[in-house]
Design brief:
The protein is α+β, with helices and mostly antiparallel strands. It contains eight helices and five strands, in the order E-E-H-H-E-H-E-E-H-H-H-H-H. The chain folds into two domains: 2-133, Beta-Lactamase, CATH 3.30.450; 140-197, no CATH class.
């Protein structure tokens, strides 16, 4: 998952339907191991999601377990002080990572961070490198909707994304569905706006 400041931008790739769901949950809910690993700059390890020593992801945990993730881990992707996002890992059984698995995850996160910087270095300013964009899920519609909601409410884009997530969560929908309604001008967060005139 790539992140900008403390906001998730989307996943570069996922390996299977469960990892795709884990990435979507973290993006939609704004919580999970990758987000904590990026924000804190340290690996986040949860060897038993169903019975954690310290509960931390109230909205993320239930759907992740239902999808089959019984252990989840996040490893920051960074080069020096530059933080790019985080690598998420999950397992279908509870238990800690072995020392070798932990070392491998740290190495893969570092290689992924270097690859992101290398690919992006060849891209035009303001554009995502083709190598990063193909096969990725950067949720462009959600980012566009966040900008629209920010303009409607005169708030920051980060605050607008929080509003989109809250609306999606309250209605039991993926944030992408709410974003598509905003972009299609079927849903507005502006008070008293008549959508029939848009």
């Amino acid at each position: 998952m790539l992140m900008s400041h403390d906001l998730p931008r989307g996943s570069l790739c996922t390996t299977d339907p469960v990892s795709s769901l884990i990435a979507d949950l973290q993006f939609d809910l704004g919580e999970g191991p990758a987000i904590d690993a990026h924000t804190g700059g340290e690996p986040v390890l949860e060897p038993d999601l169903a019975d954690p020593q310290t509960p931390r992801w109230l909205a993320f945990t239930g759907p992740a377990i239902a999808a089959g993730a019984l252990a989840v881990h996040g490893f920051p992707m960074r080069i020096g002080a530059v933080r790019l996002g985080a690598l998420s890992l999950f397992r279908d059984r509870a238990g800690p990572l072995t020392d070798d698995e932990y070392a491998d995850a740290v190495a893969v996160a570092h290689v992924a961070a270097e690859a992101v910087l290398l690919f992006q270095a060849g891209a035009l300013p303001g554009l995502v490198a083709t190598e990063l964009d193909s096969g990725s899920d950067f949720h462009y519609d959600v980012h566009q909707a966040s900008g629209m909601v920010a303009a409607q409410l005169d708030v920051s884009v980060g605050q607008a994304l929080v509003r989109l997530r809250a609306h999606a969560f309250a209605n039991g929908l993926p944030v992408r569905d709410i974003a598509q309604q905003v972009v299609a001008r079927e849903l507005s967060f502006a008070v008293g706006e008549d959508l029939s005139e848009l």
